[in-house]
Amino acid sequence: MISQEKSVPFLKNRKVTQLSQRMGIAGTSCVLDVMINDRSALIRDSAAFIVLLERIWKAREVDAGLVWSEINERIRLADELRASGIRPYKGGRFRSTKLP
């Protein structure tokens, strides 16, 4: 797994606040798209959400490569557990916060 850096509080700034608000709207749109079963809108709004998230990472000097590596590692762990016949889910036989 990727080592976690020390948690350092961020200073508030207008750019990140605006990006966060826009990301919240995009996330809400994704939820609504799922509820109304609109696949094409879900794809479009999910892409917007990810773009905004990456902009926030950049503004906060978070290396996007480290985040994507962490996601890939979680997927790898889940695949490894499935191959071993262990159903990877939280609260089940194999408990981990690292599962997707």
Global outline: flat
Our estimate of the beta-strand percent is: under 5%
Radius of gyration: 17 Å
- Count of strand segments: 0
Q: Report the total helices.
A: 3
Oligomer category? single chain
Written as H for each helix and E for each strand, in order along the chain, the element string is HHH
User: How widely separated are the two ends?
Assistant: 14 Å
Biggest pleated sheet = none
Domain count: the total is 2
Overall mean pLDDT: 82
Low-pLDDT stretches are none
Binned, the helix content reads 55-70%
Structural class: mainly alpha
What can you tell me about this protein's structure?
With 100 residues, the protein is mainly alpha-helical. The protein has two domains: 13-62; 63-100, no CATH class. The chain is 63% helix and 0% strand. The protein has three helices and no strands. The chain has helices spanning 14-35, 39-59, 64-83. Helix 1 packs antiparallel against helix 2. The model has no long low-confidence stretch (mean pLDDT 82).
